[in-house]
Structure formats: C-alpha cells, structure tokens
Design brief:
Blueprint: E1 5-11, E2 14-21, E3 26-30, E4 32-37, H1 46-53, E5 57-61, H2 62-66, H3 72-78, H4 80-84, E6 89-93, H5 96-102, H6 109-118, E7 123-124, H7 137-156, E8 163-164, H8 174-185, E9 192-194, H9 198-202, H10 206-219, E10 226-228, H11 237-242, E11 247-250, H12 252-258, E12 261-264, E13 267-270, H13 282-286, H14 289-294, H15 297-325, H16 328-336, H17 340-351, H18 353-356, H19 378-387, E14 395-399, E15 408-411, E16 415-417, H20 437-453, E17 458-463, H21 468-471, E18 479-482
Parallel strand pairs: 4-5, 4-11, 5-6, 7-8, 9-10, 10-11, 14-15, 14-17, 17-18
Antiparallel strand pairs: 1-2, 2-3, 12-13, 15-16
Helix pairs in contact: 7-8, 8-10, 10-17, 12-15, 15-16, 16-17, 19-20
C-alpha cells in the first residue's frame, strides 16, 4: 500500500482527502469527480472541463485508444495530455467495460498496462472481470479469483510512476466483496475501485449499492482511496461519500445530454417536459428550455452537457463543504427525499451506523434532527454505548422537563442526558417540536441501556405524551409519569 492518500477530515465515513498523483505532478482534492472523456467524441472539450468546471482529473478508455487507427499513434507519440489538451491527472480504464458488453477483448493485462504507461496515463487499470449483480455465487467467486490473479499480475508489470488500481469485484455476494477488498488491499497497488456498480445504479438499487460498498470498505484499510466506478449521477454523490467513497466517474453528463435528459440533485428531468429551468448555472440563466429544444443537435447536446457538469461539480463542492461542516448526513437526508429508492439507500446506510462511527468525529458544530432517520445516526448509537458505561445514583429521575437538582434530562432521540454532558455534542441537538416515533423509540433504548448497566437504580421516566407502545418497552421496574400529572 502506498502513502499517497491523506485523509484530512471525516464525517460519518465520508472524508476530505488529498490523493497524490506523482506522474501528473499534482495532488487531487477528494471527494473528486472524474468526467469520462470519449477520445473520439468530446461533447465538452477536456480543456473546458478544466478551465470552466475546475476538473482536476478525468478518465478515458485506453482500450479504445489502443484499437483506434486514428488515435493510437498520436497517443503514443505525444501522450494523453497533449492528445486531450488536459493538464490535470488522467486515469485510464482498461477495456473491462467492453469485456462485459461483448464477452471478449483482444489485449492482455500486461499489454494494456504497458500501453497505458506508454501513452502517459497517470493512473492505470488492469483488466478485471465486471461481474453483474445477482449472478450465482460460483460464478461471482470464480470471476473474482480471475480479477485477483490479474491484480497480482499487475504488480509485476513495470508501470514506472503510473499509479495502478486494484478493482474490487464479487457481484452482490457481500462476503466475496469483502474478501476481494481484503485481497486487493494486500497488494502494493494504489487505488481501489468498486466495480460493476452501474447495473445497480441504473435499476435504482441504492440499498444493494450501500450493502456492497459497506462490505468492500470492511476489507480495506482507512488509508485506501476508494473509487466508485460509474457513479455519475449527482443525486447519489452525498450518499456515496458518506459510505467512504472518494472518487466518482461520470459519463452521465454527456450520455444524458444526448438523450435530452437534464440532471438535478433530486433526479432527472426531460428537456421536452420543462417549461422553466430550475437552476442558476450559466446555461440555464442564458437559455430557456424552448430555446434548447429549437437549437441544433450538436449545440443542444453541448449546452445540456454543460448544465449537467455544472450541477455535478456543484454537488461535489457541496459534499466537500458538508464534510467540512460536519453535516454530511443532513445533506444525505435531504437528497434521500428526492426519490424513494434514495431513501432506501439512506436507511440502509444507517444499518451500518456502528461501521460509520468508527471514523465519525466525536464532536462537530451541530446535530440537526431532520427526520426519523436521524434517530439512527452514529451519534445516537455512540451516546447509547456511553450510557452503558455510566454510573447512575440509587434513585434517578429522567425528565423531558426540568429534572430537578438530582435528576437527568430525557432528550429524544438520545435518551438520558447527565448534567455533565448537557452542553456536549451531540446532546445540544436542534430538534423540531414535533418528533416521529423513531425518536422516542431511540430514547427509550437509551433508558434501557442505562438501566441494564445500573440494575440497582430506581429510575423514574417523566414524559410529555410519548407513544404508549414505545413506553411499554421500558423495563417493568421503571416508573412512568406524565409531565405535570405527577
């Protein structure tokens, strides 16, 4: 494992980092978006990706270049950076996509890695087997073994300063994904893409996507930069970042533009159905939907692609700032309200609260309770664990109102709050006056945790109309009183 990736700050498993790319002589700020550039058809020229949108890195397909009568020799003679007119870092794919589409390709791992080095790629990729979702376990295991063999073969190829990726495969079999990640991390390769994810994203299976990424992350060290292959829609960048993904590549900006599709952080709109543009980018401020519909095909594709890029890079900046401000999960929650499948993904993410809290900071600026899902966040789980270690007095009043001199506050979703922790994050949370049932249920779990750790303490819970079925899950020896009716 190289020491090229440095994590600067965490929020949940999301992280701000810096990835050094020696051959390019640059360091990439992460999370980062890699626009996919088709070397034959450049909807938006790479120079504009850099100057207009701030792209620090892009990705193109070395297999396409290898087989191109038109571009192979220019790429070998002048190098990728001159060919594409891009001064940032360039990553190259190996032909695995073509392998998944057509069943075979006519190069070996050694040949394609050597070609990537010769054309000046900064980050190269071996030929992995992109196993699709839901295949039989035997197929997934066999193809993962083949991928691992090629990863280990890649270690033996002289790639100079070019970084080399170690793709993680395994379909939707989580133990295979975890093993694949562990084996990939055990090599001396540099970057770890989680592959064959596009089918899950195309089918809006964000819950399965979270399971797969969580499994891969369990097999990787925290110093491993993670690339989520094909994660091109801005609606899911925050979710992917919260899982601990650092790099995303997107062909969606161009592919969607050619289909007349208009990206937003809440989903996809069709140009034909828009009366107004709900965006403030330069394209949307200077054109109406009707003007784009009347434009020539090439111009329409370019303008839509520029809008799609503006939205995508804007969301990456928003994700970075959310990590910096400690409110990434609030951003994920907001994005989850844009589509039911995204909400499934967010809820699945919170199944892994214990995994997230390994890196989630103990202190942040603020905790905003914004939905029932907030009750399952890592901060709540951490407080409940802390309650299991606290010593309570012989008699303890837990109250939603003033607990009195010898009592503790009772705060949903956290539960018991001793005076010494009242002004400590996250117990200073901003909450709405009206809470959902999950908040009360989480608070009761906190009471139960404290009671189990202090079996000799006589506990009284004073509430202000909490759901009866939630209160019924308190231990039988806990007294229950209604605030004002004691």
């Amino acid at each position: 494992m190289s020491e090229l990736f440095e994590v600067e700050q965490y929020d949940a498993a999301g992280r701000l980092g810096r990835l050094e790319v020696p051959r390019a002589g640059t360091t990439i700020q992460t999370p980062a978006l890699l626009p996919v550039v088709n070397p034959h058809v450049q909807t938006v020229p790479p120079a504009e990706l850099e100057s207009q949108f701030g792209a620090e890195i892009l990705i193109t397909n070395s297999y396409v270049l290898h087989g191109s009568d038109e571009l192979r020799e220019p790429a070998l003679e002048g190098g990728l950076h001159d060919l594409l007119d891009f001064s940032g870092a360039i990553m190259t794919d190996s032909g695995s996509f073509q392998l998944s589409e057509y069943g075979e390709i006519d190069v070996t791992t050694e040949e394609i890695l050597e070609f990537q080095r010769e054309i000046g790629s900064d980050i190269g990729t071996p030929i992995d087997i992109p196993t699709p979702p839901d295949v039989p376990r035997e197929q997934a295991a066999e193809e993962q073994r083949t991928t691992q063999e090629r990863i280990e073969l890649a270690e033996t190829v002289d790639t100079g300063e070019m970084l080399v990726t170690a793709p993680i495969q395994g379909s939707t079999h989580l133990d295979i994904r975890q093993r694949a990640a562990r084996e990939a991390y055990g090599t001396d390769l540099d970057l770890f893409p989680i592959g064959a994810m596009v089918p899950l994203m195309n089918e809006y299976r964000f819950d399965d996507l979270v399971h797969v990424v969580a499994a891969a992350k369990r097999g990787l060290g925290e110093d491993a930069p993670v690339h989520l292959f094909g994660a091109g829609h801005p609606m899911m960048f925050a979710l992917a970042a919260a899982m601990g993904c650092d790099l995303f590549d997107s062909a969606a900006y161009a592919l969607y533009a050619r289909d007349g599709r208009y990206l937003t952080v809440r989903g996809t709109e069709h140009l034909d159905e828009l009366e107004h543009f709900p965006c403030e980018c330069s394209v949307c401020l200077s054109h109406t939907p009707e003007e784009l519909r009347q434009a020539g095909e090439t111009e329409r594709h370019r303008l839509l692609a520029e809008h799609n890029l503006a939205v995508s890079f804007g969301e990456i900046r928003r994700v970075r700032q959310a990590i910096r401000g400690g409110n990434l999960l609030e951003l994920v929650d907001a994005r989850a309200r844009g589509h039911p499948a995204m909400l499934d993904g967010y809820r699945t993410l919170l199944h892994y609260a214990d995994q997230l809290r390994r890196t989630d900071p103990v202190a942040k600026d603020a905790f905003f309770y914004v939905s029932g899902e907030s009750a399952r966040r890592p901060e709540v789980r951490r407080h409940h664990e802390r309650l299991g270690r606290l010593d309570a007095p012989d008699r303890l009043r837990l109250s939603v109102g003033s607990p009195g001199e010898d009592g503790w506050r009772l705060v949903a979703p956290f539960g018991p709050v001793p005076p010494a922790l009242s002004d400590v994050y996250p117990l200073t949370a901003a909450r709405p006056d009206s809470l959902e049932r999950p908040a009360y249920a989480a608070a009761v779990r906190g009471v139960n945790r404290l009671a189990a750790a202090n079996p000799d303490t006589a506990i009284t819970v004073v509430h202000d109309g909490w759901p009866e079925d939630v209160l019924a899950s308190l231990p039988g020896d806990v007294s229950i009183r209604l605030l004002g009716g004691e």
